[in-house]
Amino acid sequence: PPEDQSDQIAVAAYLTSLQDYQDETTRIQDGFRAEMDLYQAKADVYKAEVTEYQKERATWEIDRFAAISGAEGILETMLEDFGWTYVNKDDSAAFFSHIISTWIAQIALITIMVGLILVLIKRKDAK
What we know:
Blueprint: H1 8-82, H2 92-126
């Protein structure tokens, strides 16, 4: 407020500057409200996108889990059934002992089968 309240020019200038200040304040507040409305609209869009993404991700994870658990089941069954055939090639002692025992088993099977074939042929010829 002006020092001299009776000076009408000073009071008019003060009231004009006060009105300008209030107009500027209103303009700033309106701009802020507009920015907040825009931000709220963007936040709502983002929220909808995140919700959609989360639904898609959940579906993807369910499908992925189903596929992986099926594959893991197959691998587990294979490991249970044929795990004895696996050997570490980097451990040369275990590797070569496994190879030798496998060869011995194959030689024994071949010998038994050839022996059976010879016995059966001899029986057939004897009749």
